[in-house]
Amino acid sequence: MDPYHKEDVPSSLCFFTSLVLVVQGLGLLSVILVSVWMGNYLGGFAWSEDPDRQFNYHPVFMVIGMIFLYSDSILAYRVFRNVNKLYVKILHASLHVGALIFAAVGLKAVFDFHNAKSIPNLYSLHSWIGLSTVILFGLQWVCGFVAFLFPKLSYGLRTRYMSQHVFWGLTILAMAVGAALTGIMEKAWFMNFAKDSKFKYSALPSEGVVINCLGVSIIVMAIIVFYLVTRPEYKRPRGPEEEEHIQLSNN
């Protein structure tokens, strides 16, 4: 029997598929909610000609990149469990690149906004967590590319590194969620106490509902991703290369 193509499918695979679809729904919902918040309530989008609206790209792009695309990249190996592993590696790395591009543009937007308004950079807890997350994300991508794609480490070294790669992948996702939540609350706090602001968070206006639903969507999405990645029954079946190395090591 070919263990790569005919391994028994987990009995709970339907539940797995349902949860993956929920993740996609929550990811899209998060992107829609943050876009509505920035586009409808905070004036829409522009670039350097309007720093206030340039800032609005920051939360949208960070949610797209560091929450939605990153979550999908983490799930790629389990979703495409029977697809050629090289193709999944390329997809995994490509989603990482897409997330990194969105994050880079999002960071530029917020730095440009701060500089145009003479606001200090990197003073808040949100900024410390956020920048640390993006830096670790970039390092994780480089290490993963070298270890698993090119020049590619030996099978033994890849096997030993894999647990570290998974650990740091989930850690970075947790940090991204923390950065998103602190950023959401920081923006709501500034709006609530800004001079002449009509936004009163304690009154729970429609904008406040959007803000809260955005945060809840991100949290629930991350919880499901953690669950799917840590459940052994959803792990990708061993391919021919892994089976061959196991057999050789047992001889």
TrEMBL record:
Q: Which GO terms describe its cellular component?
A: membrane
Q: Which SMART domains match?
A: B561
Transmembrane spans: 12-37, 57-79, 86-107, 127-150, 166-189, 209-229
Extract the InterPro entries matched here: CYB561/CYBRD1-like (IPR043205), Cyt_b561/ferric_Rdtase_TM (IPR006593)
Primary place of residence? membrane
Q: Which domain of life is it from?
A: Eukaryota
**Location in or out of the cell:** Membrane
Q: Which cofactor does it need?
A: heme b
Q: Mind telling me which PANTHER family this protein's record contains?
A: CYTOCHROME B561-RELATED, LD36721P
Membrane topology note: Multi-pass membrane protein
Protein name from the UniProt record = Cytochrome b561 domain-containing protein
Supply the alphabetized keyword list.
Answer: Electron transport, Heme, Iron, Membrane, Metal-binding, Transmembrane, Transmembrane helix, Transport
Question: Which residue intervals define the domain Cytochrome b561 in the entry?
Answer: 22-230
Name of one Pfam family that matches = Cytochrom_B561
Organism, scientific name: Dreissena polymorpha (Zebra mussel)
| One MF term in the entry's GO annotations | oxidoreductase activity
